[in-house]
């Protein structure tokens, strides 16, 4: 009996069930495909976890690991070429793929009360030729800081459209009891209202896009007594950073506060950084509004947690998975590949049996079939 006719020895990985509703974009009047959609998806995720960085290296992984792949699916016609992979993901419905991803993420995440959900956007560089657009695509992601997982995303044509993307993203997220943090782009009255409708708290940066609010907040911190103060000192990476979080909850002199749903506190966070080598000190002040009651330590922690979306998600996609070096410009390729990378990253994050860096886990997955199965939860 040939390898291609052998029955798979193992059940498909658990994530597979959440993607079975995906519609195959290829025309159905050609009969059976050489490469079923579920086989292509399993190949792609397995290859990316193991270090593949594009359609060509995914193709090579498939050739090298065909016997291992056949433990889970028949692969009666082997594995597809890079051209087949590129065309499929260019035409795969990105919205349906994103929904399947979100359903799978919800099944593995355990969002707890008080968890910081950081919302931030990332531009996919070199995607500016997608759909003949002059601007590179921009993905707004929601990142659960404790779970270290992206729990949803919304795609827009350019960064300036984040204001329209955030409400759509909030609509599909389960946020009860969480703290939603967004940079100044999300400091909008409607977004505040949407967050509170989800029974979540908000912590939003205030900048020049709300000039009147920013001016008032700055003046209040010059005149009013603080309700609470928290100081946090961090030493590492050749510098000492002191973060001072000052909170005011007496807002009777803040004009128009009633327009910001359930506004309870304003915050000034001062970061003083001293470089050990040069002995140079820099000070930066940032201002926030929040529905939180005024616990400075909690707010100081939440502000710091917001940056996990940059450090753990966007940095990983850029540096570890080299997303921005990719040349996937056709159709939905750039967005669908972004979802694939988030799938792989989530699986690697959830694998805790070995305390290793993400690059080390990917290398081990490439060399060790059993460890790859552990990451895939096969």
Question: Could you characterize what this model shows?
Answer:
38% of the residues lie in helices and 19% in strands. It has 378 residues and is α+β, with helices and mostly antiparallel strands. It has a nine-stranded mixed β-sheet with strand order 3-2-1-4-5-9-8-7-6, sandwiched between helices. Strand 2 and strand 3 form a beta hairpin. Helix 1 (37-49) packs across helix 11. The model has no long low-confidence stretch (mean pLDDT 90).
What Rg do the Cα atoms give? 23 Å
The sequence of SSEs as H and E is: HHHHHEEEHEHEHEEEEHHHHH
Report mean pLDDT, rounded to a whole number.
90
Number of helices: 13
| Helix content estimate | 25-40%
Which regions contain 5 or more consecutive residues with pLDDT less than 50? none
Quick rundown:
The chain has 378 residues and is of the alpha+beta class. The chain has helices at residues 37-49, 55-64, 66-69, 82-91, 94-108, 162-172, 189-197, 211-223, 296-306, 308-320, 333-350, 358-367, 369-376; strands at 116-123, 138-144, 149-156, 179-182, 201-206, 228-236, 239-248, 265-275, 281-290.
């Amino acid at each position: 009996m040939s390898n291609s006719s052998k029955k798979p020895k193992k059940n498909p990985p658990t994530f597979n069930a959440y993607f079975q509703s995906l519609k195959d974009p290829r025309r159905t009047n050609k009969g059976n495909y050489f490469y079923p959609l579920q086989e292509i998806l399993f190949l792609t995720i397995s290859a990316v976890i193991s270090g593949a960085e594009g359609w060509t290296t995914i193709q090579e992984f498939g050739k090298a690991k065909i016997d291992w792949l056949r433990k889970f699916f028949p692969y009666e016609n082997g594995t597809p070429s890079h051209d087949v992979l590129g065309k499929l993901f260019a035409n795969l419905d990105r919205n349906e793929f994103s929904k399947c991803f979100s359903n799978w993420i919800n099944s593995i995440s355990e969002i707890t009360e008080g968890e910081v959900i950081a919302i931030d956007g990332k531009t996919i560089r070199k995607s500016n030729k997608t759909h003949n657009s002059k601007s590179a695509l921009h993905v707004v992601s929601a990142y659960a800081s404790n779970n270290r997982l992206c729990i949803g995303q919304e795609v827009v044509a350019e960064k300036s459209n984040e204001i329209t993307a955030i409400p759509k993203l909030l609509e599909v997220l389960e946020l009860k009891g969480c703290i939603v943090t967004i940079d100044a782009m999300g400091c909008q009255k409607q977004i505040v209202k949407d967050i509170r409708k989800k029974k979540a708290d908000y912590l939003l940066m205030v900048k020049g896009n709300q000039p009147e609010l920013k001016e008032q907040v700055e003046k209040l911190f010059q005149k009013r007594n603080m309700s609470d103060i928290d100081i946090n000192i961090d030493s590492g990476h050749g510098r000492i950073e002191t973060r001072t979080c000052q909170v005011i909850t007496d807002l009777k002199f803040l004009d128009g506060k009633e327009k910001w749903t359930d506004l309870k506190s304003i915050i000034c966070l001062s970061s003083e950084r001293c470089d050990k080598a040069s002995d140079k000190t820099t000070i930066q002040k940032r201002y926030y509004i929040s529905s939180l009651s005024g616990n400075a330590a909690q707010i100081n922690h939440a502000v710091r947690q917001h940056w996990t979306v940059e450090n753990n998600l966007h940095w990983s996609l850029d540096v570890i998975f080299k997303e921005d070096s990719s040349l996937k410009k056709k159709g939905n390729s750039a967005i669908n590949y972004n979802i694939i990378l988030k799938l792989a990253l989530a699986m690697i994050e959830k694998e805790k049996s070995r305390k290793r860096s993400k690059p080390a886990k990917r290398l081990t997955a490439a060399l060790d079939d059993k460890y790859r199965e552990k990451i895939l939860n096969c």
